[in-house]
Amino acid sequence: MTETRCGYTALIGEPNAGKSTLMNYFVGAKVSIVTHKVQTTRTRIRGIALEDNAQIIFVDTPGLFKTRRNLDKAMVAAAWAAMHESDVVVLLVEAHRGITKGVEMILMGLRDKVSKKQKVVLAINKIDKVKSEKLLKLTKDLNDAFDFEETFMISAVKGFGTQELRSYLAKQMPLSPWLYPEDQIADVPMRMIAAEVTREKLMLRLHQEIPYFLTVETEKWEQKRDGSVRIEQIIYVGQERHKGIVLGPKGETIKSVSMASRLELKDLVGAEVHLFLQVRARPRWENEPERFEAMGLNFADTRK
Question: Under CATH, to which class is 5-172 assigned?
Answer without folding.
Answer: alpha beta
